[in-house]
Each structure stands twice: as structure tokens, then as C-alpha cells.
Amino acid sequence: MKSVLSDRRARIAVRVALLAVAPMALLGAAGSEDLALPFLSPEAVEAPAGFDGGTNGFLTQEEFDLAREIFDEQEEIDEGLGPVYNALSCGNCHQNPVSGGISQVNELRAGRFDGSTFFDHAGGSLINDRAIDAAIQERISGSANVRTFRTSLNALGDGFVEAVANATIEAIAANQPASLRGTVLRIPVLEAGGVLRVARFGWKNQHASLVSFSADAYLNEMGITSPLLPDENSSVGFPVDDFDEVPDPEDAATPTEPNGPDVEAFARFMRSTKVPPRDVVLAATPDAQAGAQRFQQIGCARCHVARMVTAPAGTVINGGAFVVPDALGNKIIRPYSDFLLHDVGTGDGIVQNGGPATRNKLRTPPLWGLRTRDRLMHDGESLTRNDAILRHSGQATSVINQYRNLSTAQKNQLVAFLNSL
């Protein structure tokens, strides 16, 4: 399989490389994403939707199929897997119902909270479940009193999420009631030399671009270094150099793919996926339609925002590292998320990019594709829609109190709506 992939990569390399420069060179800049408010655009059209394995138009179908194969291919030790890691491929954690979707796979995080300050576990809050040698298997220290699972996230449609302008997310926050207002994070875009952008990816809004997200996942989930993150992780703080036989960075730069060919292929794949589709049959039922109204009426949609529009084609994003192409620009998406951090009483206690105030805040999870998930909330511990809703508190207290006051029939209608997403 790998030799076939190498041959196909070589045949398509020139066309794929052009994708990195064509938007900037051919489209020109329509403006800054910090000024664009494209959700007001009357020319916007619906983003392509489907669980059909088809491209959204960012790549040709042939290029998309190749990028998907790279996304799904199993890494091996002689290619740099590990020394500590969680999975053999991106597809291990993002596969339901198609590549790029979700799964039942969790990752493990830990640290220590002394009542005022959070401290990462030795070697970082991520505890890798696997190692290429038993001598470096990671384990949680007994002093770690913060321990949590995090479920894998749906990556389908993330190219459109990336193409949402900073100004759109910031405007959503500004228009939320003070008690429900989400936290906006601006974090470094790795491929743009650390230029700040509004975060939108990961349970803690760890990243703002798909290239940064890909490099992070390649290192932290598979243990493979790249030019953006060239240093191996430790094993609970101890170096793993004696077990690493592949020179770093393992996904080495090429003249046309300076961030690493696999990292860039992962980003191209996600940028080319369609958004999760609605179950149109269920969505048309009276119960689901009534449930959609309840969802709006009791305030769920203040954070699970039903509709937004991506920036116009030509808009410079990611600190100048990417320009929104026609396939992603001015598209209506329905993610049911504001991509902001909130404290809804279920925070995992881990601090990452946002500082101490975000310890118990999590990104509003997009609800599109919800019907493909059976383990809910950040830790996968809620197994019914009703249980997941009732776990909300904190900033969501007023909304959940209204949910509690619904009749059983009305709650079932709301659940029917959720099951149509």
C-alpha cells in the first residue's frame, strides 16, 4: 500500500503543491478576516453536505481520494511512529461513518490542581496509551488529582470552519447575553510563525488552523514530528531518544510542502470534506420540527449557533498562510456551535492555551453529525441525549432549567430534532 501511495503522491505532487499557492496567487485578497462579516452576505450558498466520501470541490476527487488514503494509512515504527503514541493513523480516531468522522476512541489527560493553580502532569497533560517499548509506557502519577478522558471529534466540514472569519466568531460572542457569553481565544498559527488567530479546533480551542491542528495530532497522537513541531514528546518527563531511530523531523519538509507532506495532506483532506448532512426524513417529521423550535425557544441556540457563513473567497486567513478559495468561501454552514469556550459545569480541569480562567471551560461541540455519536460530552460518559443535556449547568443553568420544565413529550421532540442532525 505504501509504495502505491508513494507512486500516486509523485503523480499528483505538482497539482497538490499548487493548492498552497493558487489561492494567494490567483484569487487575490478580498480583505482581512478581522474586518469581514460574511454572515450578512446575500450571495452565500449552502456548503456541500454528505457522508458519501466525495470532495467538496477544494480538491479534485482523485486528489481527495489520495489525501484520504494518507489520512487513513497506518504508520510504522521505521517511519517514526512513537516512541509514545495513541494511534496508528488519523483514521483510527476519525472514521464513523466515513473517514474524517468520529469514533468511540478517547484520549487521556491529567494534571494536578492545588486549589488555585493547575500544573501539567510530568511530560504534559496528554498521557499516551501506547509505546513502542514497554520501558517507556506512560502512566498517571498518584499525585495527579485531575484526570479526564476526551473523545475524538468530528473533522468533517472543518475546512468550512477554518474559513469562518475571526470577525464572525467575535461578533457571535459580542451578541450573546453576558451570562452566556463565550470566551474568544486568539492563539498562534504555527505555519504563520506564531501570528495570532481566533481559535476554533479542539475541546479547549487549541488551534486556529488545520495545518497547525494536523501537526499537533501527528506528534501527540502518533508520535511523528514535523517541521512545525520537530521535537519528540517525552515519556512522563523522561527523554525517549534511545528508542527513537528515525531522524527528526520525521515528516520532513519538501520544496513544495514545507510543513511536511503528511501534515499538509491531512489538512488538505479535512479542507475537502463535506459537512455532515441532516437526516432529511427525520428532520421533516412533526416531532423534529417541533423540537427545533423548542431548541431555539429555550436558548440552546445561543451557544449551539445554527447558522454562519464562511468568509468570501479571497479573504486572507491563518495569519496570511492561507487564502479562502471558491470551494470554501461564502458558504452557509449549520454547525450548531459558536466555537467559543464556555463553563457549562462539565469542564475537564485541564489548562492549555487559554490560561487559568479556562480550566473548566470547553469549546461548544458542534452538533452536526450528532446522530453518528453514541457516547456524548467531552468524556463520552453520557449515553443518552437527555443525560447529556441534564449534565449542563454553569453558564447553561437558565437554559437547562427551561428544559427541565418541558413536558416529557416536548423533551422527546427536542431529542428527535437532535437525532436528525
Keywords:
globular; 11 helices; three-stranded mixed β-sheet; 421 residues; 28% helix; single chain; four-stranded antiparallel β-sheet; alpha+beta
3D architecture notes:
The chain has 421 residues and is α+β, with helices and mostly antiparallel strands. The chain has one domain (2-418). The chain has eleven helices and 16 strands. The chain has helices at 2-27, 61-72, 158-162, 166-174, 210-222, 261-272, 280-283, 286-297, 385-390, 397-404, 408-418; strands at residues 31-32, 45-46, 84-85, 106-113, 118-120, 126-127, 130-131, 146-151, 186-189, 195-198, 308-309, 315-317, 322-323, 331-333, 341-342, 362-363. The strands form six sheets. Strands 4, 5, 6 and 8 form a four-stranded antiparallel sheet that branches. The protein is globular, with a radius of gyration of 21 Å. Residues 17-29 have low confidence and may be disordered.
Short description:
The chain is α+β, with helices and mostly antiparallel strands and 421 residues long. The protein has helices at residues 2-27, 61-72, 158-162, 166-174, 210-222, 261-272, 280-283, 286-297, 385-390, 397-404, 408-418, and strands at 31-32, 45-46, 84-85, 106-113, 118-120, 126-127, 130-131, 146-151, 186-189, 195-198, 308-309, 315-317, 322-323, 331-333, 341-342, 362-363.
